[in-house]
Design brief:
Helix content: 40-55%
Largest sheet: 6 strands, mixed
Organism: Kwoniella shivajii
CATH topology of the largest domain: Serine Threonine Protein Phosphatase 5, Tetratricopeptide repeat
Domain DhaL: 388-589
Number of strands: 12
Keywords: ATP-binding, Glycerol metabolism, Kinase, Nucleotide-binding, Transferase
Structural class: alpha/beta
Mean pLDDT: 90
Number of domains: 3
Family: Belongs to the dihydroxyacetone kinase (DAK) family.
Order of helices and strands: HEEEEHEHEHHEEEHEHEEHHHHHHHHHH
CATH architecture of the largest domain: Alpha Horseshoe
Function: Catalyzes both the phosphorylation of dihydroxyacetone and of glyceraldehyde.
Radius of gyration: 25 Å
Low-confidence stretches: 371-377, 559-563
Length: 592
């Protein structure tokens, strides 16, 4: 059984935009920023805006859920690829008002970094309204050991978070309240998926199936990842039993994520989700078996939602999600009736399937963009102690990275995917270009650091670009804060404090911590030593930390997927860590 590889389209490269135009034709109440691929509704000052997004290919998620009672905006990337920060920032600016915005996205590295960076940039801009990010990770197929660093994947349960948080926002609640209910619901959702085969991405070569005719894969994600187990094709009742057991079982310490009591008092919302290519006939049978299983286990089913909510293109598979409602015996801010009230609240969006609002029965053209108000950020000025040396230090670091490209590439061909040297070289060349063109002037470090953050995000791309850009965005905000507190020169003390705060910002969006065989190892060593040892001494400590990565087991990054013993034998340092060392080594001589 090979995945379906025939598609109906004009051109694979225009498919996402073509689809979004069709969605706007279907629903004239929504608008499209075609250039940034943002679907949105006109902003409302009366509610906390709710945004989501991610790679395309999960339709109707996420754009199909933009409408009253659900999302205010969805930002769409290429198929299975996170949108970039410029797209996300545009979406945030289009719908965020004084009450702020909550971004709800699934826990994938690219989405976490890019949406997080966009939120940080908005917050650093001085515009009104706070913006926060919530990562949903409801996959129970990922064990605690597997998810130690990256956490669990986000799956279809994310839709329930949208619906409930949006209903509370519609009631006039503030950002703290909307974020709180979203976090609560997220902590109570478990999802698991299966696939009869993988899907096929338009524009790519057709592949062969890795499953036999009578096999399926349990623990499927939504990006063509392999599942956790291959099983012989069972009956629906046997399959549902296996899946729901994994969500409700509290005896497996590696996968017991939801606090079921399993004593007859549990109440749930069931979501049956078609991953793209299961017939409605089969989905009906799956829904019936799921309700029956829960009732036989004395788990009260308060609501059933069934349909196509979040796909993996044309994957022949489905997922089951359970939302455990608050029990009367537990101490909770929310009651079961409140959560159900939010879930049952009216919603109008093409992707929102009909639901009864009752317990299950007993079996016997491009739209013109909305005008957005511009808010100028508060001016802040912070001058380097020596403008010429400040620029020279940046140039030295960039030239050091460019010169190091061959060694970084060689390291990454062994320890990663081979692009680290070229990625860092591209960012360094872009910064030098920004200096030559006068974008980086050396007069106001806040402005210059902001330019660097934008340049590396745009020209480096990928995970490295996002990590560097988040750090520099955090650095710029920290420098701005010190400027508004009275500082007017970038002394060593100012740089040290700003760097510490920038690292804290970066740590909001990556779980990597030293020793992890990643760029954070030398970065943290450098920042920790900077106040006491100065730039040169801190650079020496960064070198030691980068060199130490030769001996470490990778806990995060692409190196985590490479044979660890082979890496140790070949004594290859982490290329990302080595890149940090080359940068700070180039800074030597600039002490303030």
């Amino acid at each position: 059984m090979a995945p379906q590889h025939k598609h109906l389209l004009n051109n694979a490269s225009t498919l996402v935009v073509d689809s979004l135009k069709g969605l706007v034709n279907l629903n004239p109440n929504i608008k499209l920023d075609e250039g940034q691929r943002v679907i949105y509704t006109p902003p409302s000052q009366s509610r906390v805006a709710l945004l989501s997004g991610g790679g395309s290919g999960h339709e109707p998620a996420h754009a199909g859920f933009v409408g009253p009672g659900l999302l205010d905006a969805a930002v769409c990337g290429n198929i299975f690829a996170s949108p970039n920060v410029a797209q996300i920032r545009r979406g945030v600016e289009l719908v965020t008002g004084e009450k702020g915005a909550l971004i709800v996205v699934m826990n994938y590295t690219g989405d976490a970094l890019h949406f997080g960076l966009a939120a940080e940039q908005y917050r650093a801009s001085g515009k009104p309204g706070d913006v926060r990010v919530l990562l949903v990770q409801d996959d129970v197929a990922v064990s605690r050991e597997q998810g130690t660093i990256v956490g669990r994947r986000g799956l279809a349960g994310t839709i329930l978070v949208y619906k409930i948080a949006s209903a509370l926002s519609d009631s006039g609640a503030d950002l703290d309240s909307v974020e709180d209910v979203a976090k609560y619901v997220t902590s109570r959702i478990g999802t698991i998926g299966i696939g009869l085969d993988h899907c096929h991405v338009p524009g790519t070569k057709a592949g062969d199936s890795h499953l036999d005719e009578n096999q399926l894969e349990l623990g499927m994600g939504i990006h063509n990842e392999a599942g956790t187990h291959k099983l012989d094709l069972p009956t629906v009742s046997e399959l549902v039993d296996s899946m729901l057991n994994k969500i409700t079982n509290t005896n497996d310490p590696e996968r017991s994520y939801i606090p079921f009591k399993n004593d007859g008092s549990d109440e749930v919302v069931l979501l049956v989700n078609n991953l793209g290519a299961i017939s409605e006939l089969e989905i009906g049978g799956i829904t019936g078996e799921s309700v029956k299983w829960l009732q036989n286990k004395s788990i009260k089913v308060r609501r059933v939602l069934s349909g196509t909510y979040m796909t993996s293109l044309n994957m022949p598979g489905f997922s089951l999600s359970l939302l455990l409602l608050p029990s009367k015996s537990e101490s909770s801010t929310y009651s079961s009736s409140q959560i159900l009230e939010y879930l049952d609240a009216p919603a109008s969006a093409p992707g929102w399937s009909w639901s009864s609002g009752k317990e299950p029965g007993v079996i016997g053209e491009k739209v013109e963009e909305a005008a957005t108000q511009k808010h100028a950020a508060k001016e802040a000025d912070l001058a380097p102690t020596d403008s010429g040396e400040f620029i020279s230090a940046i140039q030295r670091s960039c030239k050091a990275l460019i010169a190091a490209e061959p060694e970084l590439t060689e390291q990454d061909q062994i320890a990663g995917d081979g692009d680290a040297g070229l990625t860092l070289e591209a960012g360094a060349k872009a910064i030098l270009k920004a200096i030559d063109s006068g974008k980086i002037k050396g007069q106001n470090v806040i402005e210059d650091i902001g330019v660097i953050a934008e340049v590396v995000e745009e020209d480096m791309g990928g995970t490295s670009g996002a990590l560097y850009s988040i750090f520099f965005a955090g650095l710029g905000k920290a420098l701005r804060d010190q400027s508004t507190s009275g500082e007017n020169k970038t002394t060593l003390k100012v740089w040290s404090k700003a760097s510490e705060e920038a690292l804290t910002t970066l740590y909001k969006y990556t779980r990597a911590r030293p020793p992890s065989r990643t760029l954070v190892d030398p970065l943290e060593a450098f920042i920790a030593s900077l106040p006491s040892k100065g730039l040169s001494g801190a650079a020496d400590d960064a070198h030691a930390a980068a060199d130490k990565t030769k001996e470490l087991v990778a806990k995060a990054g692409r190196g985590a997927y490479v044979n660890q013993e082979d890496l140790k034998k070949r004594e290859v340092p982490d290329p990302g860590a080595w890149g940090i060392w080359r940068i700070v080594d180039g800074l030597r001589g600039f002490e303030a």
